[in-house]
Structure formats: structure tokens, C-alpha cells
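Lecture notes, unit on protein representations.

Consider one protein chain, 145 amino acids long.
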Amino acid sequence: MKLTKRKYKTLEKGDIVDIIAPALGCTQKDLDRVEKYIKSIGLIPRIPKDILKGDILASAPKEVRFKHLKDALTNKTSKAVWCIKGGNSSPELIPLLAKIKPPAKQKLFIGFSDITMLHMFLNQQWGWETVHGPIARVMSVRKKN
């Protein structure tokens, strides 16, 4: 079996990670714990100030969640995008995502649950490799902070 080179760069201490909530939100306590966890593993979390402006069905209105997703995928300073939580509402971002041009630089994209729809889009439409792995909130709870 021939191993192929990854299209994304692995994370190193000091790298910026965009934390987004394209589906359900979380509590402020969870968000604080995620920020603390990301810092504890040597990474720099970047979390939008308006990440928790939603209701029980989503972390924020669709337009806000899409802006966070687009900004995270297209900015040139972060190496990864890590979803804070799964749940419903991320599939409604796909038609908006389909309207933008794929960035030249691929990033590490991490999440699961309803985030799977975003993985499928990034895999099939942009040719990105993604990590169907733990959401940031779960990782922050598992680590004793």
C-alpha cells in the first residue's frame, strides 16, 4: 500500500485554530473550557465573539454561522477549523458554501455528528481531506482542566 502525502499540515505548538459552531451551540462555561483546553495543548484558539447568539436549534442565525465557517475556512492565518459541537443545522450551510471558491490552502477540519455534511462537502466538492473526529467540547470535558 502506498501512503499519500496529506494535503493539510499537521498542527504544531503556537498554531491558530478557528473554533466554530456551525450547528448547535454550547454554554459559556463549555466555551471557556474549550478555550482553556486548546491553550493547554499549545495551540491558539480563535473564537468569534458572537458564536453563541442562537436559540435551542442552532448556535446563531444561519448567516452568522456561515460567516464564521467561511472566515475560518478562508483566512490565511489558522491551520485548522475545529467544530465545538455537532447537532442539527449545519446542512443548511451547504448551499451557501457551494457559492464560494475553495481556498488555495487546505486546512485541517475536525468534527462529527451533523458536521458530517460539511465533511462530505469539503471532501467531494473541494477535494479536502478532513478528520471525522471528536468535537472540541468533548475533548475539553475529557481533559481535566
